Amino acid sequence: MGKAVDVNDENFESEVIKATIPVLVDFWATWCGACQTAGPIIDKIAGEYEGKVKVCKLNVDEGANTSTQYSVMSIPTLNFFKEGKVVDQIVGMTPDFETDIKTKIEKLIANK
Amino acid sequence: MYDVIIIGGGPAGLTAGIYTSRDRLKTLVLEKSMCGGLVATADFIENYPGFPDGVKGVDLMVKLKKQAEVFGTEIVELKEIKSIKQESGKITVQTQKEEYISRSLIVASGSIPKMLGIPGETEFRGKGVSYCATCDGPFFKDKDIVIVGCGNSGLQEGKALLSFVKTITFIDFLPFMKAAKILQEQLQGNKKVTFLLNHEVLSINGANTVNSVTVKNRQTNEEKMVLVSGVFMYAGFLPNSGFVKDIVELDKDGYIKTNEKMQTSVAGIYAVGDIRSKEVRQITVACGEATISAVSIRDYLQEFPK
After folding, report:
1. A29 lies in some domain
2. Tens digit of each residue's pLDDT (9 = 90 or more) over B224-252
3. Which of A34, A45, A85, B301 is the most exposed place for a label (fewest CB within 10 A)?
C-alpha cells in the first residue's frame, strides 16, 4: 500500500517544483469531510504509480502560502504538476474520483 | 438480493435504513459521494427537535449514519447510480462498475444546488464560486463576499461566515427575504452586512479568481459592480431525479410524485425526502416520510414473499 508524501510551505519547492517526475498534489484540510474519504484513494494511487508519478498531500493549514499562490479556494483540490508547472486540475470530489484521477495521470505520463 | 435498496445517504435515506433494518429487512444504502446530504454541509441546525442549543449539521449526520449501521444497514459511499430497471418484482440498480438487485427501492436522492446559468458561474467554480460555506468559508478570511439567496440556507450559512469574512453582501432576486424572521433579525443591523434585495446577478467576474459580481437593480435597471473575492450560491435546489425520470412519474419540476404512503407510480419503488413532490422540504419532513415508506415497504414485501 502506497503512501503520499506530506508537503508544506517549507518543502514545496524541493519536493514538488524541483521533482524530476510529474507530481500530483492533494490540497486537503482536517475540517473537510470529503478529504477524509479522498485520503485513502490518494495513498492507493501513490502506491500504484510509484516511480512514475510522485503523489503529495498538502494540508492547507500547514501550506497556507502555497495554497494562496495556487489560488486554492475549495477542497479537495488536486493539482497535477509537470516540471514545476500546473498542467491539470480536479476541484472537488467527483463521483468517479479514482477513475478521474487515473485518467488525468495517464495523460500526464503520456505527454512526454 | 436485498429486500430494500435506498438511493441516497442523507437524513431521509438513513432514517429509512434505521426503520427497515429494525424490521430485519436486508437493507443497502447507496450514496453518491459521502453520507450526510445537504445537512452535513450545513453549519448549524437550530430547528431540529431535541436540540435546544442547536446541533452542527455534520454531527447530526454522523450520528444518524451510525444509528443506521447499528441496526445492520449496509452503507456504500461513492456510488453514483447510472440506471435503474424494474421487472417481474425485481429492481436492478446499476452503478459505474456494479449491479445490485433488490425487491424494493427507496429513492432518497435529494437535491442539487440550483445554478443561475450566468457567465462566470462555471468558470470560477472552486476559484471563488462556492456552493458550500462550511467547506470553503475558511479560504475567505478577512475577504469581502457575496451570498446569493436570502432563504434560510443563505442567511444561516451567512451567519456562520460572519466570523471569517470582512463583509457579506446578500443578494436576492425577490424584493423580500424568504428566511425565517429570526435569521433576518440576527443579521439586519450587523455592520458587516449589506442586503441587495430585488437585484439580479448578471455575471461573476475575475481573472484567475473572482474579483467582482455585476448586479442589476430590478426596480431602477441600474447596473453596478460589487467587488468581492467569493460568491456563495444559495439560490435554491433542483431535484436529483435524472436517473429515474424514465421509470417513475415526475411532476412538472422534476420531483417524484407519490401518494401518502410514499409509493411512486411503480410498484415497489418509493420516494422520500427532498426528491419527493411536495410543498415543504425540511429535515423533519424527510425523516417522517422515510418512516412512512418503511412501513409501506414492510406491508408490500409481506404481500410478495421471496
Report:
1. yes
2. 999 999 999 999 999 999 999 999 999 99
3. A85
Alpha helices in chain B (DSSP H): 11-22, 37-41, 57-70, 133-136, 152-161, 181-187, 283-303
Q: Walk me through the domains of chain B, giving residue ranges and CATH numbers.
A: 4-112+237-303 (3.50.50.60), 129-233 (3.50.50.60)
Contact (CB, 8 A) for B157 and B56 = no
Chain-chain contact of B230 with A72 (C-beta, under 8 angstroms): no
What would the pLDDT profile of B62-114 be if each residue is shown by its tens digit? 999 999 999 999 999 888 899 999 988 899 999 988 999 999 999 999 998 99
Residue B71's alpha-carbon distances to B11, B16, B283, in angstroms, are: 16, 11, 21
Smallest CA-to-CA distance from B227 within B139, B144, B125 is with B144
The 10 Å Cβ neighbour count of residue B73 is 26
- CATH number of the domain where residue A88 is located: 3.40.30.10
Rounded to two decimals, what is the model's pTM?
A: 0.83
Q: Across residues B290-304, what is the average pLDDT?
A: 95
Q: How many A×B Cβ pairs under 8 Å?
A: 57
Whether residues B136 and A75 touch (CB distance < 8 A) is answered with yes
Based on the number of CB atoms within 10 Å of its own CB, is B247 exposed (0-12), middle (13-18) or buried (19 or more)? Answer: buried
Pick the residue of B30, B32, B33 with the most A CBs within 10 A to test the interface with A by mutation: B33
Question: What total of structural domains would you count in chain A?
Answer: 1
Tell me if chain A has a CB within 8 Å of the CB of B136. yes
The better pLDDT of the pair B56, B150 is held by: B150
A95/B78 touch (CB, cutoff 8 Å), yes or no: yes
Q: How far apart are CA B248 and CA B244, in angstroms?
A: 6
B contacts of A91 (beta carbons < 8 Å):
125-127
DSSP category for residue B85: E
Domain residues for the domain of A79 are 5-107
Looking at residue B58, its pLDDT comes to: 87
Residues of A labelled catalytic: 32, 35
Q: Say whether B80 and A95 touch across the interface (CB within 8 A).
A: yes
Q: Do A74 and B126 touch (CB under 8 A)?
A: yes
Q: How far from the centroid of its chain's Cα atoms is residue B230's Cα?
A: 21
Q: How far is A51 from chain B (nearest CA, A)?
A: 28
